Structures are given as C-alpha cells and as structure tokens.
Amino acid sequence: MIANISGRFRAWLIDTFTYDSGQQAADAMADATRWGWLPALSGVAVGGEHARRSHNESVVQGGGVSG
Questions:
Q1: What range does the domain containing 50 cover?
Q2: Could you name the domain of life of the organism this protein comes from (predicted)?
Q3: Residue 49, domain member (yes or no)
Q4: What pLDDT is attached to residue 27?
Q5: Residue by residue, what is the 3-state secondary structure of 7-53?
Q6: pLDDT of 6-22, one tens digit each?
Q7: Contact between residue 21 and residue 29 where contact means Cβ atoms under 8 Å apart
Q8: How many separate domains does the chain show?
C-alpha cells in the first residue's frame, strides 16, 4: 500500500512539473497557423478604408464627380 501511494505521488509530481514539449509545440504551431492571417486581414481592411477616405477627399477637393 505504501509503495502504491509513493508511486502515485511520484507520478503526480512528474505529470505536474514536466510537460510534453512536442505536443505543446504542435499546439502552438496550430494556433499560429490558425490565427496568423488576422493581422494581414486587418491591414487590408485599414488600407482599404484609407484608400476610400483619400479618394473621397481628392474628389471633394478637385470638385469632380467620381463615376
């Protein structure tokens, strides 16, 4: 009984203070590829809005009508 408790305690300590770096690396890479496109998409959205605003300002300043 004592050996079983000490074995369980040892297993608990090992599980608590060690990690499977291979699995964590795979999870981190999956997250990076899953969410890595967000900054690029937000940059496209900001650039598109900037282009629309700039175009509208140039049309208003030039007095012309965009068609």
A1: 34-58
A2: Bacteria
A3: yes
A4: 84
A5: HHHHHHHHHHHCCCHHHHHHHHHHHHHHHCCHHHHHHHHHHHHHHHH
A6: 888 888 888 777 766 77
A7: no
A8: 1
